[in-house]
Amino acid sequence: MPRYFFHIHHGHSVLDDVGLDLPDIVAARTTAIELSGEILKHDVTDPLLRHICWQVEVSDSPELGGRSLFVLQFSVVQ
User: Fold this and answer.
1) Which of 37, 38, 47, 58 gives 20 to 30 Å between its CA and that of 31?
2) 15-to-5, 9, 62, 78 alpha-carbon distances in Å
């Protein structure tokens, strides 16, 4: 079973150094969407939500420079 890493980028990067073993990329997409929902539930005073743009990158590596499998992007437009 492949291991997927969920990195968050919002002005700086928070790298997932553990990852999750999931059956396929569809399961990784579902997990990334669920993670994003949890982030969005936080109070607006959360430092992550103060950034205009942020993203969840799903990678095959716990480090920057691994293969990016897909990215969920979020932004606030005023």
Assistant:
1) 47
2) 8, 8, 7, 29
Cβ density class 52-63: b for 16+ within 10 Å, e for less = eebbbbbbebee
| Residue 11 backbone zone (phi > 0: left; psi -120 to 50: alpha; other: beta) | left
69 within 8 A of 26, measured Cβ to Cβ: no
The first and second tokens of residue 76, run together, are 């606030």
Residue 21, classified by CB atoms within 10 Å of its CB into exposed (0-12), middle (13-18) or buried (19+), is exposed
Q: Do 50 and 29 meet the contact criterion of CB atoms below 8 Å apart?
A: no
pTM: 0.85
Map tokens 């579902």 to a residue: 30
Nearest by Cα to 8 from 77, 51, 78, 41: 51
